[in-house]
Design goal:
Helices cover about 30% and strands about 25% of the residues. The chain is α+β, with helices and mostly antiparallel strands. The protein folds into 2 domains: about 5-100, Nucleic acid-binding proteins (OB fold (Dihydrolipoamide Acetyltransferase, E2P), Beta Barrel), CATH 2.40.50; about 125-155 and about 220-225 and about 250-450, 2-Layer Sandwich (BirA Bifunctional Protein, domain 2), CATH 3.30.930.10. Helix 4 crosses helix 13 (about 435-445). The chain starts with a strand and ends in a 20-residue tail after the last helix. The structure holds adenosine-5'-triphosphate (ATP) and manganese (II) ion (MN). Adenosine-5'-triphosphate binds next to strand 14, strand 18, strand 19 and helix 13.
């Protein structure tokens, strides 16, 4: 007897073999001739396995009234070619064992379609639906593909710390980590005395592993981090989470164009790989979530990304005649509406914007010869907007220190980061890709809360 997952049973070329399959009942149908048909799913595939049960099967009479949607069963039976349309095989049960029942009156996931808002409230059950099963299988394939991409190119996977005492952006929005009594913290001179806190200074959850990534890039060579990232920005949008997963490659001896080349081939490769590894789930998204998603992804795989300087982008936005909520002028950060206009309406393909004004970008980005722009790049994709932010890093000690001062940071606080420019400094570059933004791109889902198992957003950290 072979113990098979539903996915394995459905793909099996051997028939007339005895199998043992276990899973949850999606639906049951009873025929007048005393047969029952179960649709069994164990999460291994989108498609269910049909189980045919004759009235005389061991365990059937006893359990029949509990064989309802959501209940868990073990089926032993014979795998046979199916006469029914739309499926190659089915199992003819010889015995049924019942694990847990699911009260038909109370089980929230009955056959009807539920709204994503409702399913968010039952995040412990939503992975049992077709849509969320597909989403989390695709997310798994995506993570695997990301590791493959870097591993096959000799990049070293580095685990950057989650608790940190430095602020990678110098831009706040961090969650504090403390063991001090919030009601009565120790005070000196009217300030909280963090020397008495767990780490002896103020600590937070990381907003980026980049600075640590640079340490490893300038020692082990090409490397990447892949971990959870936390931002306490109170922006309740469909594209921001307070806890999200970020992939941050960092490469020594890379200039900005090398960085763009890597980012582009990275996105095109992982999209192609997920399409190839999850054809069923992807077809489902194309049918039920966004009927243009496969065509959009093909377009991304097959065509070069457009590269455009920030200055050129601003010129286009200022003269295009489109009505924007926020007006555009050189020196201001682009809003989501501007990015979406460029990538969706104007060009209809991914765009890499580069060379942004120094005033709106972080201290570590390399200053260009013109003195007013830095070697920053953002990758924008249709349907999502910004998916990657990156830059060539400032490798010149004097320029870095003056940029830090300009941004109100104390170089002493970043002494180890500054040291990398003191000892064997090299041109280097890297970027950050938001995993959940790629998930939006791949699935056509429109709310980032629906592509992470348990979303954390302002006022919400349930489950
Ligand atoms: P945005 O402008 O969209 O808020 P950002 O410029 O603050 O993003 P970066 O600091 O450049 O983001 O981070 C790198 C990448 O991480 C982004 O391109 C995006 O894919 C992802 N990302 C950033 N913030 C979030 C968030 N709050 N939730 C989910 N993904 C995020
Ligand atoms: Mn960014």
């Amino acid at each position: 007897m072979q113990r098979l997952k539903v996915a394995q049973a459905l793909k099996s070329t051997a028939v007339e073999i005895e199998v043992d399959v276990r899973g949850w009942i999606r639906t049951k149908r009873e025929s007048k001739q005393g047969f029952a048909f179960l649709e069994l799913n164990d999460g291994s595939s989108l498609a269910n396995l049909q189980v045919v049960i004759e009235g005389t099967v061991t365990g059937f009479a006893e359990h029949n009234k509990h064989l309802t949607t959501g209940s868990a069963v073990r089926i032993i039976g014979v795998l046979k070619e199916s006469p029914a349309a739309g499926q190659k095989v089915e199992v003819h049960a010889t015995s049924i064992e019942l694990y847990g029942t699911a009260d038909a009156e109370k089980y929230p996931l009955q056959k009807k379609r539920h709204s994503f808002e409702f399913l968010r409230e039952i995040a412990h059950l939503r992975p049992r639906t077709n849509t969320f099963g597909a989403i989390f299988r695709v997310r798994n394939a995506l993570c695997n593909s990301i590791h493959n991409f870097f591993q096959s190119r000799g990049f070293v996977y580095v685990n950057s710390p989650i608790i940190t005492t430095s602020d990678a952006e110098g831009a706040g929005a961090m969650f504090q980590v403390t063991t001090l009594d919030a009601a009565k913290p120790p005070m000196v001179d009217g300030h909280i005395d963090y020397s008495q806190d767990f780490f002896g200074k103020r600590a937070s959850l990381t907003v980026s592993g980049q600075l640590e990534g640079e340490i490893f890039a300038t020692s082990l060579g090409d490397c990447y981090t892949f971990g959870p990232t936390f931002r306490a920005e109170n922006s309740n949008t469909t594209r921001h989470l307070a806890e999200f997963w970020m992939i941050e490659p960092e490469m020594p001896f890379y200039e900005l164009t090398d960085n763009m080349d890597l980012a582009e081939s990275f996105i095109r490769t992982i999209v192609a790989e997920v399409l190839a590894t999850c054809p069923e789930d992807m077809a489902f998204f194309n049918e039920r979530i966004d009927t243009t998603i496969l065509a959009k992804l093909r377009n991304i795989i097959d065509n070069d990304f457009l590269r455009l300087s920030y200055t050129e982008a601003v010129e286009i936005l200022m003269t295009c005649g489109e009505k924007f909520e926020y007006s555009v002028k050189w020196g201001t950060d682009l809003q989501s509406e501007h990015e979406r206009y460029l990538t969706e309406k104007k060009f209809g393909k991914p765009i890499i914007l580069f060379d942004y004004p120094r005033e709106i970008k972080s201290f570590y980005m390399r200053v260009n010869e013109d003195g007013r722009t830095v070697r920053a790049m953002d990758v924008l994709v249709p349907g999502v907007g910004e998916i990657i932010g990156g830059s060539q890093r400032e490798e010149r000690l004097d320029v870095l220190i003056s940029r830090m001062q300009e941004c109100g940071l104390k170089p002493e606080d970043y002494w180890w980061y500054v040291d990398l420019r003191r000892y064997g400094s090299v041109p280097h570059s890297g970027f950050g890709l938001g995993l959940e933004r790629v998930m939006l791109l791949l699935t056509g889902m429109t709310n980032i809360r629906d592509v992470i198992p348990f979303p954390r957003t302002p006022k919400n950290a349930d489950f």
